[in-house]
Amino acid sequence: MKKIILGILSMLAVATIIPSCQKTDVAVTSEITPDTYPKTAAQLTSAEGPVFVALRADYAGSYWFTQSCSTDEAVLPSFGPNWIDGNKYLELHRHTWTKDNAWVTSNWNYLTNIIGTTNQTISIFRASAPAGAAKSTSLAELKTVRALAYFMMMDSYGNVPLDTLYGSKDLKTNAKRSEVFNFVESELKASLPYLKTTVATATYGLPTKWLAYSILAKMYLNAAVYTGTSRYDDCIAACDQIISSGLYSLEPMATYLQMFYPTNGPSQKEFIFAIPYDASTSNGNMFFARYDLNRNLGIRYSYSGSTAGAYTDPVINQSTGNGLVNNSPSGPRMTTSEFYAYFDDANDVRNKQWLTGQQYWQDGTPIMVSSTNLGYNQFYTGGSPKTTYVYSLVLSPLTSSSVRSGTASSFDLGNDEIAWNIGYRNIKFFPDYTNTISRNQNNDMPIFRYSDIILMKAEAILRGGAPTLGATALSLVNQIKAVRTTTAALGSVTLSTIYSERCKELAWEGWHRNDMIRFGMFENSYGLGKTNADVTRRIFPIPSTAMSANSALVQNTGY
């Protein structure tokens, strides 16, 4: 299914973009012109392809890094000379980014590219497509994707330019955050009557009415942050539209982790909207599952106690006869001890998304790693630096004392195997080890899941919204816990409970920055020297490149 979807998108990205420079003496072999394409319902659906190519392009890259590595959820320290990369990771973690930070810039480019591509496609449809239900649906789908991109921009950058007319040469200045909020709300509401309601393979990865309601619910939950006015009853109403549809349900404990496997897709009962990825066709694939683990022959093959055994590991048999691993462990992206503390229920299946402590082969044998005295510890001063050193692979938590080299302000864990074994790794989006071509992955990335809708409604009720459909905040949270843990149901629930539950449920899914800001946690101190409590960091600066290209833009306060 994924290959079919992405094949169509890739093909139509070519078919719908006409090059501006070409030879004039080439014989005409196609009669695709604005007069002939797109006209039919199938052509309209296929011609939307470039928009979805743009959407998937950097969601798991720049967008994920800005949303997760700016929080206590994820951090990528340096290891000696490795992963310094212009301090773009350090700046995200410590909230010291500038308008020239590489991630801040590439995320802006990613989101504006979605908007620009959508504007172009909308312009083509308005000029070429015949009036009718198919055109109305396609335009509604395109506007919903554009609304999603504008929501992400508003959330990340605050006051951003509203530019919806393709071909306009007028430089747009920043619109107020509240104006962008109102625009996204009006676009989604206007699109609702024309969006499809079917949840099936044919609509997987496409904007439906339920995606529009999900975006609205997320906006209304954060309305006090964006506009200064709370909209909790509106959030609940949007959530109720999805809940009352009866089209979604929570995955049981036995299949929770499988939602994120390389084999995930249209069959997932919780996915309201997901970006399909295919390792063989997508350069912008959701790479980070393998990215964290691909250099680690110890960590990458040690997902013991899970149902991941369906994936046969061809490299595991290359260990030596005594069970040693002859390659250095690595995998730089990790979580902080502050975030991992929320995983405090030993009976919760969501704990299995983490690699922690002693690592084992699938038969239960501890993983042993073969190195040298100096390779294991760069500060070794004995007389046998090249002598073989064998150790048991144990991951230690990342704490403020994990820095072993440089000054107290260092972001460097060291350039040895002790350093590579610091930090708990997330393997929620479990790697597909049958893919030997690249680090790209087949795991589809959910943007909205049903469990998020349940938790948003529970939070909105606790924040003052009126309960509906016979549900309370407590019953909603217990509805999720009933399929995630064997621990007894909760007897009460607070906003702190909701926050903890969101950390457990939505880890590594790109929502944690949004949550930390709403719960007033973004200014906390955590990890490796994150102490900056400046509230202006709740939005990113407009990149220098954007300011240079558009002189009408005004920089955000504090930058």
From TrEMBL:
Keywords: Cell outer membrane, Membrane, Signal
Range of residues in the leader sequence: 1-23
Transmembrane segments: none
InterPro entries, sorted: SusD-like_N, SusD_RagB_dom, TPR-like_helical_dom_sf
Subcellular location: Cell outer membrane
SusD-like N-terminal domain sequence ranges: 89-221
Domain RagB/SusD: 269-559
Pfam family, one: SusD_RagB
Keyword NADP attributed: no
One cellular-component annotation, GO: cell outer membrane
Principal subcellular localisation of the protein: membrane
Family to which the UniProt record says this protein belongs: Belongs to the SusD family.
Protein name: RagB/SusD domain-containing protein
Provenance organism: Mucilaginibacter paludis DSM 18603
